[in-house]
Amino acid sequence: MTTRWRTVPALILAAVLTGLLSACGALVGLGPVPTGSVGGAVDASRARAIAARVVAAAVKADATPTSAGDAARRLVYTGDALAAATADARLAATTDAKTKDERVLTSAPPIVLAVSRGLTYPRTMVVQTTRAKSGLPVLYLLTTPDVRTPYQIASSAPMLPGASVKIFDPLTQGSLPLGSGTGLSVTPMALTTAYAASLAFPPQAGRATTPPVPNDSFAQGVRASAGNQSKGMNGIGTFTQVHTAKDVVGGLRVIGGAGALVFVAMNRSDSFLNRTTGTLKPSKQFTALTGLKSVTSEANLSTLEIVVFAIPDAGPAVTVAADEHLYAASGI
Length: 332
Hints:
Layout: E1 2-4, H1 9-20, E2 37-38, E3 42-43, H2 44-62, H3 67-76, H4 79-90, H5 97-102, E4 111-115, E5 123-130, E6 137-144, E7 152-158, H6 188-198, H7 217-232, E8 237-253, E9 260-274, E10 279-281, H8 284-290, E11 298-311, E12 318-331
Parallel strand pairs: 1-10
Antiparallel strand pairs: 2-3, 4-5, 5-6, 6-7, 8-9, 9-11, 11-12
């Protein structure tokens, strides 16, 4: 007898994100993009040209889930963003047409929201595009480590409904670097570590019940999904979920240095343990990654979670954008 999974993390969280992102996020307080020199290093028209080139190259690479696309992705993405884009390409054949359609961007050129100040490296840009179907803003972190390396996408995520981003210093002045997070209400890594721990399922004994980011729709959706996964395993086995802080990708300070927009990454591990004599039928994503069409004992999935926080100089942080990318799986 075959016992089927009622839900699978790769599917249920994607559905949660679709629900969370169905309403349009808002970039509050962002006026016309200033013109002039950008931190004395590159003028605003050049910054916009760089952003347009990088985003266009990313769109083209994402539409090519082959070895040729892999080469293109290595040119346009770096770090966690490259891992995410590569993972998405591996699962392109299992992605439904509706989801693909929802990711399509408008033809409008990207908006450069901020650039790092000064002539030194590494350099950073924060850029925004918009999804055509939903009107949802997507935030990108573009970086270059040295004069020889073109700007690449280091991180990106769609904004959550109702989220906003504070204005940055003018492009003519450039924005202060994130650094180690000194002067913020909480350092980015400390926040990421606490945030990851708060998402564990079942909740970790002894952990504070107050979430590190209040009124966080992404975290609420993750917790609800984990609960549904656990219910789906009732009478079959057990489900556990662990989130761990991976790294602080980068970011820039907002106007006057009174806070920062910060891109971080976490790893999520989902584990299913079958306690019956039957088999579990996994999702097509799981099968694509493992080649397994059934699981007799246990299944494990690994997902890269990208989160963008707005961390003020005083008070609680806010989650403004989030995305997730299933990249590995195993089973017995």
